[in-house]
Write a structure and sequence with these properties.
352 residues, alpha/beta, eight-stranded mixed beta sheet, 33% helix
Amino acid sequence: MRDTSPPALVQVDGLKMYFPIHSGVLRRHTGDVKAVDDVSFSINAGETLGLVGESGCGKSTVGRALLRLYEPTAGRVIIDGEDIAQLSSEALRKKRPTMQMVFQDPQASLNPRMSLSSIIGEPLVEHTPMTAAERQGRIYELMDQVGLNRRFANRFPHEFSGGQRQRIGIARALALNPKFIVCDEPIAALDVSIQAQVVNLLEDLQEKFGLTYLFISHDLSMVRHIADRVAVMYLGRIVELSPRDDLYARPLHPYAEALLSAVNEPDPDRAKTRKRILLKGDLPSPANPPKGCNFCTRCPKVFARCLTEKPDLVHVEYGRQVACHLFDPINTASGSTGGSEDQEHLQHGVTQ
């Protein structure tokens, strides 16, 4: 039977983003910070993929590399049928209207010397032949869509609250009618009371315009609300990619399990029975990741193979992918996942 499903709007294959380390008087290249190390995923049109993980795992770097705000070290990033990593400067400029970004800190991402009208209208000046009157009409239309009063058009960023500034950033991202938007922790710098308003706005805009989101966040409760699928990152690699409900009900990877154990449970009865998983040790340096699995130095289920061989992200259930040797058919068939005494010994050894 032929697969008649439409191709993914965003397809990422083997994305790597290394930052070189130079040392010594001659500034020789002595190593690399592997911020993103062989990441692959896809996002269908109209879908929201949540990207979660602790600080420093490479989430924001993935988002910036997708839009080529950083030049990828390796890999393919195909957005709406074109490989972004291979486009010339001119071709990339023409592609920009298709893909936009909402940044984490709305105050830092807005020019303090430009009025609201100028900020929202800047993409229109750069990429469209609109007249001044047409441009102003489009600016008012965008302000209406994100819930900003038209009387604020000539005000400057410092005159707005954090939530209003983020709405300005969203309006700017929508100006050119994009298909794909990277939301880089868009609620992290906002008050809790405002976060839900911004997320609800993003959902309403997605439904109205058919937008596709990569939603980067460390707020697992909010990702549960907005995402269709969730990718869990650890030290530059995706360790699990699953549908939202499946992941929150039964995480497969030990790191995803530990991460979700820290999420607040609104049901008091379930909260009483839930066991919090505390990880030991510190996050390894991306400049010197472990030889085997990146998580082996902190994993409570570590066994011998984890210390020498990096697991690939493979399909283990319908719609679910995980990078863990525990789910390798070789281990599950032989039952060689390591006994509790062996795991304790290995855990002690790798954390010394």
